[in-house]
Design brief:
By secondary structure, this protein is of the alpha+beta class. The chain has 8 helices and 5 strands, in the order H-H-E-E-E-E-E-H-H-H-H-H-H. It folds into 2 domains: about 5-120, Alpha-Beta Complex (Aspartate Aminotransferase, domain 1); about 140-190, no CATH class.
Length: about 200
């Protein structure tokens, strides 16, 4: 395996990881074996195929995970893909709590990654359900379009937390104020936190 594929930003991320370092490294090696481009987006190692996001490696308190951006479109023959919450529409995770689990699943993971690449090659898109309960202000919608991980993180929040953010973002009359509220809350959303957390 060539080191040229390794992104220095991901090296830095891994060197600073307090938790899941070995797991991240193992997942990284598996993903890099699948001929994807290693990038660093939304503060996480992200792997792309022809500039399209395929998988992202991220960690939480209880587990680390390989997140498939369009996981909902995969066959999931092994029944291992997890929908973080019912509001997450496209992304799916495969969760791990130790290196052994990752090593044991290597062949399956590669099969899923190759399938995810095929989904991209075929140009398949996840059909999103309409969330008609509330109108999402365009300031946050624009950020979602720009930063899919932000959208994924937002969709992973509980419905109550989503509503709280949307109300918070919708309140100001001026777009500039709404934008600055969105900017201020982005890191919180990426960290899976609610407005009041």
């Amino acid at each position: 395996m060539t080191n040229s594929k390794r992104n220095p930003k991901v090296d830095e991320f891994l060197s600073k990881a307090k938790k899941w370092q070995g797991e991240y490294e193992t997942l990284r090696n598996i993903v890099l074996d699948c001929d994807l481009t290693e990038e660093f987006k939304w503060m996480h190692p992200c792997y792309t195929f022809e500039k399209k996001n395929i998988v992202l490696i991220h960690g939480f308190k209880e587990y680390c995970a390989l997140l498939f951006h369009k996981g909902a479109l995969l066959q999931d023959t092994h029944g291992i893909l997890i929908q973080q919450t019912e509001n997450v529409q496209g992304a799916r995770q495969i969760r791990f709590t130790n290196v052994q689990e990752i090593v044991a699943a290597e062949t399956i993971l590669k099969a899923y990654i190759h399938e995810a690449i095929e989904v991209e090659k075929a140009g398949l898109e996840v059909k999103f359900k309409d969330n008609t309960e509330f109108i999402v202000p365009e300031e946050i919608q624009n950020k979602f379009d720009e930063i899919p991980a932000l959208k994924n993180a937002f969709e992973a929040l509980t419905p109550g937390r989503q509503r709280a953010y949307i109300l918070h973002f919708s309140q100001p009359k001026q777009s500039k104020t709404r934008e600055s509220r969105v900017e201020k809350c982005m890191q919180k959303i990426l960290n899976g936190k609610g407005l009041k957390d």
